[in-house]
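INFO batch 0412 | record 1 of 1 | parsing
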Amino acid sequence: MFRLRFEILLNFWLTLLFVAWTSSLIAQDLTLRVGQESHRVESATRDGKTYFRLRDIAAVFELSTNETSSQIDVFGPRGTLALMDDRPLVRIGDQYILLTGPVWRRGKGNWYVPADFLEKVLPGILNTRLTKESDGTYRVQGVGRNRVRVEFLKYPDHLSVVFRSSRAGVTAVQEFRDYVEVRYGEYLVNPDSIADPPDRELITSVKFVPEEAFGTFRVGKGEKFYSFRESRLSDPPRLVLDVFPRPGTERSSPGSGATVDLPATSRPSTSREPPDEDPGQQPRIPVIVIDPGHGGEDYGVDVYQDVLEKGLALVLARKIEQRLVASGEGVRLTRFRDVDLAAEQRSAAGNFHRAKVFVSVHVGGAPSAQTSGAVVYVYDPPPAEFKVSRAAPGEGGGEGDDHAELVRWNEGQIGYLNGSRRLANLMQTELNKLFGIQNSVVEARLAVLAPVMAPAVLVETGFLTNSEDLELLGRDEFQETLAYTIARVIGKFLESR
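INFO prediction complete | emitting tokens
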């Protein structure tokens, strides 16, 4: 009798423990509150992560979708986003956002997204704001409107573009090759009609792009555009861009621009210059090729206006080079100065030098300030390219015969994908340890990697749009550690081949 009671009690407690354990594996559903109504979003667990059903989210916000076998497009009032099955990368317009886990397609019409989709991605296509009330509960609220009027003030030596706002919100200024972008945050922009610029040789136009974030203006560069200075005024809130012409085209010299390159203390000339070296004079000895991203007129990320991606990428590339040379490796950089190289020029440099390994060094920028840490990218070829049948010469990219088989330009990476993926996984693992994060390797169709006939990766060495990463990347000791880590991974990869 005693044994029977003992077995009954034991089974009872084991049952309770099993119920508690299985309950811990069931993800908590999401609640979205709109006014007095509460909407439930079904959840599921995959690989220990919580996912939410996209169909339920779309129904709450009245979003339409278009699905194929491997991709689903979601259409919102302010833009469209594209999600791909089993990929953590989400595309909004021409920008990409990295999630903590891959998108999950459980079946036709049954897609699930990681929890950070709600804060990182969804607000980019909505006219509403999500406010977290508690774990698993968000309040859906309307977003205020910001009326913005664009004015032009012409001076003897420059032209001022004034953005006069009805609300004091967040603005970010970023310079690109053909235009300067003014991006607004916090409030949805309602622009007044925009007049033509008074001097089209300096500014060709000012256009409003409603699909970008809360609203973005693009100031087109004219033939005489040389530099600009940014300032902010209050009462009423105004953002002013003072645009200066090239020296010698007006009576006065324009002064310096608003951003600063590293390691120099002032921005150099942004005119396109020829590459540093004549490839025909260089010996074709297999080497490691390091590609500092951007350069010249292509500034890369410069959200904070005092650090440019192009300068920081060159600093890091030089430090990686020093570490590799010290270990006895031959190294070539695709650029040594602040020059602008096209993607095909960078790839060609890697192939010309018969690269053993090709690493393109960048520093990221993301719409969400929460995105952080290093991310390693590897080439993802279109499905049709898998039909190409050819073997890589030892996956060495330069260790085979000089009379290698001729291949189409954008198919160079096909024979080296296995090596590229091994290198990417090894590098992502070590960089995750350095940053204390759990990022994953991302496969993307990057033009700079497609033609490279060697194991090749692109490394975002952190995000300037994240305050912690920005602080780390500004420290010389961290730059040295970062360069050491990348160089050590390259060495370990070459030894393991």
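INFO post-check: Helices lie at 2-25, 54-61, 117-120, 309-326, 343-352, 417-435, 467-473, 476-496.
INFO record closed
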